Amino acid sequence: xxxxxxxxxxxxxxxxxxxxxxxxxxxxxxxxxxxxxxxxxxxxxxxxxxxxxxxxxxxxxxxxxxxxxxxxxxxxxxxxxxxxxxxxxxxxxxxxxxxxxxxxxxxxxxxxxxxxxxxxxxxxxxxxxxxxxxxxxxxxxxxxxxxxxxxxxxxxxxxxxxxxxxxxxxxxxxxxxxxxxxxxxxxxxxxxxxxxxxxxxxxxxxxxxxxxxxxxxxxxxxxxxxxxxxxxxxxxxxxxxxxxxxxxxxxxxxxxxxxxxxxxxxxxxxxxxxxxxxxxxxxxxxxxxxxxxxxxxxxxxxxxxx
Amino acid sequence: xxxxxxxxxxxxxxxxxxxxxxxxxxxxxxxxxxxxxxxxxxxxxxxxxxxxxxxxxxxxxxxxxxxxxxxxxxxxxxxxxxxxxxxxxxxxxxxxxxxxxxxxxxxxxxxxxxxxxxxxxxxxxxxxxxxxxxxxxxxxxxxxxxxxxxxxxxxxxxxxxxxxxxxxxxxxxxxxxxxxxxxxxxxxxxxxxxxxxxxxxxxxxxxxxxxxxxxxxxxxxxxxxxxxxxxxxxxxxxxxxxxxxxxxxxxxxxxxxxxxxxxxxxxxxxxxxxxxxxxxxxxxxxxxxxxxxxxxxxxxxxxxxxxxxxxxxxxxxxxxxxxxxxxxxxxxxxxxxxxxxxxxxxxxxxxxxxxxxxxxxxxxxxxxxxxxxxxx
Amino acid sequence: xxxxxxxxxxxxxxxxxxxxxxxxxxxxxxxxxxxxxxxxxxxxxxxxxxxxxxxxxxxxxxxxxxxxxxxxxxxxxxxxxxxxxxxxxxxxxxxxxxxxxxxxxxxxxxxxxxxxxxxxxxxxxxxxxxxxxxxxxxxxxxxxxxxxxxxxxxxxxxxxxxxxxxxxxxxxxxxxxxxxxxxxxxxxxxxxxxxxxxxxxxxxxxxxxxxxxxxxxxxxxxxxxxxxxxxxxxxxxxxxxxxxxxxxxxxxxxxxxxxxxxxxxxxxxxxxxxxxxxxxxxxxxxxxxxxxxxxxxxxxxxxxxxxxxxxxxxxxxxxxxxxxxxxxxxxxxxxxxxxxxxxxxxxxxxxxxxxxxxxxxxxxxxxxxxxxxxxxxxxxxxxxxxxxxxxxxxxxxxxxxxxxxxxxxxxxxxxxxxxxxxxxxxxxxxxxxxxxxxxxxxxxxxxxxxxxxxxxxxxxxxxxxxxxxxxxxxxxxxxxxxxxxxxxxxxxxxxxxxxxxxxxxxxxxxxxxxxxxxxxxxxxxxxxxxxxxxxxxxxxxxxxxxxx
Lengths: 306, 376, 548
Hints:
Number of strands of chain A: 2
Number of helices of chain A: 12
Radius of gyration of chain A: 25 Å
Distance between the termini of chain C: 58 Å
Helix content of chain A: 40-55%
Oligomer: heterotrimer
Largest interface: B-C, 111 and 126 residues
Radius of gyration of chain C: 29 Å
Order of helices and strands of chain C: HHEHEEHHHHHHEHHHEEHHHHEEHHHH
Strand content of chain C: 5-15%
Structural class of chain C: mainly alpha
Number of helices of chain C: 20
Number of strands of chain C: 8
Strand order of the largest sheet of chain A: 1-2
Helix content of chain C: 55-70%
Largest sheet of chain A: 2 strands, antiparallel
Strand content of chain A: under 5%
Largest sheet of chain C: 2 strands, antiparallel
Strand order of the largest sheet of chain C: 1-4
Distance between the termini of chain A: 19 Å
């Protein structure tokens, strides 16, 4: 400590602290900033559960306990800001529950993405109950089971081997879906003309009116993106399979997921791909400050004991 | 603020020769080793020069050299990094973004080390080996002396008179006249940089019966494609195929004719939809829709960004650039922000095969509002 | 101390060769002896100069491959993700620089970071000159040249940003065109002629390229050379201190001291820019994708130096728009798009003359003001920074709205209020701070500085021991100029008893009111002797210490 005490009044001490702080900031940022790889890893494919696998009775229990207080026992909605569910389709249910937006603690505010509160199995039961009892004549869109969802979780498997097997299978399926798209131009046009104005070119999200926002879609799985398109959650308009066909959706999803997974050719710091605002900020706070610190070194007063 | 006074060696290290105070006037000399004055043969006055001690200079030399060696290694590293990523059979290695990132960081990192090393070495040199200078240099008196000024003015006026420019008005004026057309000529030459606006900006390629593509695809869209979108939206272009454009349609035409197809329940229409599409017309905005589907120009009337951010809950169309907001349920009237006028609307219907078609051109010129937009 | 050595033979040969032809020995020595004051804030302009040099060098490198053409091609280069996408040749050739030219990506990033640093250093350099009054006679013209450089640099940056023809850059051009179209009467003609037809046409990149690499840099270079040349002739200002005067500048001579320092500083500047470019990705056009006029992204922003224009375009409402005979007058575009720029540069350029008109001070000033000693100017400067800052922030209100979950429209309303209230508050607060600092200066001058040592007197009283400030500090403190104005004297009659006619005209009265406002608040140092140790009474000081 003596060493520090002796030097902390040194004329350059302040700049040393600033530079150290900047370095720390940089290292911390590099450590904390999510990388594209991590974001990509959590996705899973599943097939439509067969009638034998699901427990509609359990689905009813879940619905009555967690959904009915706002949406009504018959799903027709209520004054508590719970919209009518009868025509939204199972894709909407899957999207809202699997992204943790439903059940909501505060229905009057926009719900951010959260971990799902129930298990995959419970969700399957809930959807089976919804399809059987609440949905009107198959209105709305179905869950697109052929599109990959989240990756299998280790906790759902008894042994390592079967987990890795499932994971490898999932990854093949995921890659097949992403690489199955072959028209970048179409995917890009569809994304940039119909999505980017809210979710931004990088999928980083953006502001809407009245304090709402378009969420960032880095963590979204292809299936979630698909479901969001067909069901139009929140203020988002709908893009049914008529408006944008399943193959076109695959191009679009492949475009944005590939873009998000791409390493940053320009360096490890991507400034969260925010773009010009962040670049301007860095040019002042890091660039100009460091150069001025050098100028201060060049011209700093020297004392006899230096 | 006293920082600027680089007052070296105000303390007196035993091994340092402190030669003077920083002022050019003061000649107080403390602890000058015998013979220092006579030894001083630098370019500046001894009182303006504060040499470093020999010990400091020797240490400085070592540190500066270390920096220069580091810089040298950085420079070598830079050149090596360049050749680390040679082109391969499929193309350059750096075509892969990950490799490109490594290449960029290696090249940039070594370059940074090389540059910083030189900078730091030079700074150590200046601060530890070179004397510290406090040289005074007088400011020049800017205005010339009175006699110089009058001599100049006298000379100038006499010479001007002698040249005849003041006395020969005919020559002077004709010279000016001769210059004029030449001065205008460059502006005239710029005339061919572009066409006059005429009606160019007032019409688009949309015409009665023209189908529309979902933008990005070459697929015609039908009204029933949107039957599962009670709150739908899609960006569309006129179904044109110009051979010479990879997009099928030139960017100029895209910029003018792109539309946002919006579908909403017909109960949501507001009163503005019943007003005429333009003054004196018996068509209303509502007549120009088809089963809850309405087509507005996607280009903001403010300064031309695509106003594409549509919120299905509020029916607001918002431009992400400057946040002009239009109400899609109310003939795209401006409800917030700087835009001057509503988004132009395209009349739509279906043809006998069920495809959505335009029934004519927009009710107003699309794009940023310009001076003569409202005139035919 | 080595003996004076004879110049080496080779050097003498070259020297004689040049001198035989140009007679440079005397001028050469004079210039090598040129003195530069030692303070970091005098090096801010050098950052601008060096980043400009870096821009020239890297720009030349980029032109080796860049094709300023808007011809549409289908990309089949080596960057895999965009293969098969139609794009302009400009965009495709930029991809080529990024992914086929080794080091091309780095140089492009250096070019862009250097541009951001160039503009930023221009701003801080300008602020330094403003707040220290370095724009005063005889340096007004150089100040104006500086303002011109700043304005041109913004345009140069905007055009350079537009060249790769990527999504955000094309939108920048679109906004530029939208602003042009709003000009009454001739707007559509200007747009048609500049773009060679309708937007986007096939000419604009080629034309902007010519402006960006030839015309504007040539003008910038000429202005920068003139700027440096004028500094060379007039010499730097300097901060007050011991041994400093209006008569002579004190500092390090060009040769050898400053040459080495400045040389080192060039390398530092380049090193920081290269370091940023190595590790921080900037303007990743390959990720944005090519421009089409129908695509848009949220969070769309220009580079920072255009931010205040973007902000003013967002803030200005359409309620003041009106029509004349069916022709629109688009104040919502004209005022923020063109007016803001004109106001900023007009006010900056005119200020030296306005200040001189207010004070009537025609003397040459070589001694820099300490900002606190010109409270009204300093407060005005901070108010100006506040307006600029509010507009700049407003240019990213969507990012702010999203980050802090504030309603988007609310941010607009808040900024509309702040753009008027902010500068007023900033002015008042800054002036108070300046006067407070002046008062502290007077204390320090009278009593020395607080040493931090507390002593107990025999009476039991505790006092903090004050020590005498150094001679240099005293010199700095005593240098405080008295701000006066000739306008305040002109209301008196002249020696013949005739009233000054100019002072009675409206302009004269206005000028007197301004002069009063400019000079009224001031902590007088009259009669204060260094280290006299006792508080002086304020009452004797003409009662002009209004801040009490």
